[in-house]
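Methods — Computational structure assignment.
A single polypeptide chain was analysed. Its primary sequence is given first, followed by the predicted tertiary structure written as structure tokens.
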Amino acid sequence: MADGYVKTEFHKGVATIEFSHPQSNSLPGILLEQLAQAIHSVGNDNETNVIIIRSTGDKAFCAGASFDELSAIKNRNQGLEFFSGFANVINAMRICPKIIIGRIHAKCVGGGVGIAAAVDYAIAAEGADVKLSELAIGIGPFVVGPAVERKIGLSAYSQLAIDATQWRNADWARKKGLFSELHPTVEGMDESIARLAHTLVHSSPAAIEELKKVFWKGTEDWDKLLLERAAISGKLVLGDFTKNALASFKKKKS
């Protein structure tokens, strides 16, 4: 548990996938792999009608990539392997035949924004501000970019990607379409998630599967595209700018 976890719970047709990491729910490679596997598993389970993705704590929904692992990348192959983790999670959500609800209770950074964008219906609470910080450390939101752009459009995506040090508040994210709902309290968010999950459990699985195909039409090349984007990030993370930026960040945190 000290290194985080991914776990799945089932209750009356609802599969809840929860991830946790002590560093603001950041996602090292092993957790990305486990998260993708969990989504594949419950997506192919006939007893599952709807999926909820959530994280723990109250400070961050997901802080994105693990900076410790980013700092440890030594070559392009390692870089490709790490960033492919986010590609695999997004693609798992894309091809999953079940509706995925995202419980976005707090801030999202980088890859966390990508996960929020890749769920089918994100329900958030006030304080779930968003930031794509990648450019500030010399890379860019290449892997999560297609998912974010698909959900909020090129203009809003470019605003996040370019102004990489500024938070956009949760209401901005709701107005741009990243969040389907925004609630003043966590309790209100959870009530809405429970209501929607109950409705979807009693909906036609065949109809939902067909809807998913419609929702994600035009993304059939993402298996290749996201890996190409992962290779770009894997190359840039080796640059001096990124190495210096990561070292500076770690120094501030220590």
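Note: The mean pLDDT is 96.
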